[in-house]
Amino acid sequence: MKLFKSIKAASLALIAVSMTLTSSCGSSSKKADSAKDENTVEIGILHSLSGTMAISEVSLKDVLLMGIDEINASGGVLGKKIVAKIVDPASDWDLFAEKSKELLAKDKVKAVFGCWTSVSRKSVLPVFEEYKGLLFYPVQYEGQECSPNIIYTGATPNQQLIPAVQYLMSKEGGSYKKFYLLGTDYVFPRTANTILKNYLLSSGVAAENIIEEYTPFHHQDYQTIVSKIKRFAAAGDACVLSTINGDSNVPFYKEFANQGLSASLCPIMAFSVAEDELRAMDTEFLVGHLAAWNYYQSIETPENFKFVNAFKEYCKKSGLPGGASRVTDDPICWSYTGLYLWKNAVEKAGSFDIDKVIAALSNLEYESPCGMVKMHETNHHLAKPAIIGEIRPDGQFDILWNTDELTSPEPFSEFALSAKI
Prior knowledge:
Low-confidence stretches: 1-35
Mean pLDDT: 91
CATH topology of the largest domain: Rossmann fold
CATH class of the largest domain: Alpha Beta
Strand order of the largest sheet: 7-6-8-9-10-14-15
Radius of gyration: 21 Å
CATH superfamily of the largest domain: Response regulator
């Protein structure tokens, strides 16, 4: 109960900060509007600051504001200071579409940074295409999409899903033969699990050794499901592939431990749990479980040390909940990277014009917190490494495996042929 009260309190506090920042974007006269237009450029932040997804999305708003402060302190973009227009879609997928329309049609922002779930992204996609807007989407997803108005800085299936299963099936990863696919009931988990299931079947895994199950958003009672997993894993050769999203992860991992299951008996490979979610959970019961991402706070590069320290200091200085104890994670990294990709593309193009910015993004390289990454020439996705991590007692990850080179993004998977998207 204390956990959920703390999450709610944090969300309310952050909403208050957001409202303050948003109101500062207004002006009281035509003269002030004119000065604002001449000296500033406005971008939108479209993340849930309340509701079931706030546990993940609030930090993306925070890191974007940090990046904006950094860019403004160094002179802005093309001589203009960035102003953030922050809106809260409140984990309501229809509201995402409504808020995105306001940002594009009313506020006429030059770019929007936002969304987490695929259902929120799919809700706003037709709006961005109709109004010729530009959305930077920072979260791993199921692929099968390539919009001219979206820049996908999160992972495609071949950069996360497939490497994770290949690792689990390898001798190094445990040679697992049975797979329990458990997810939240929406487009990402269902399409991701279609890809995973088809890949497993093509790799020789028997159909009876693959179980697929879904729960709604904000689901809290996992007793029955974990009991089924326990029976499924009794022989010791099974693992869980988890696409559970949002605050449902807290009761799931807790029930997993309550029933005596551990990483040594049946590891969970998570595709939507990272350091930011772990800070709201009791990590005592999570040690040894796995996650597949493309960035971890524990990566040892000069760029990452600088990034992590800057984020902690920003949260402390800004009086945000958690202060200097805040953590970075994969979506936080790619949200921050997306902001700088936009900045660099604008400067390369010499214009805020969206068509020119999109053209400038082609093949654009950036030294991200996890090293050099590169935008694909044509498909609006980012080449990056694939990494498998193991949860430590402190809520960080030990890196177990990673690709030696950048993995080129493949948004359309051959294993998604029967996916219903």
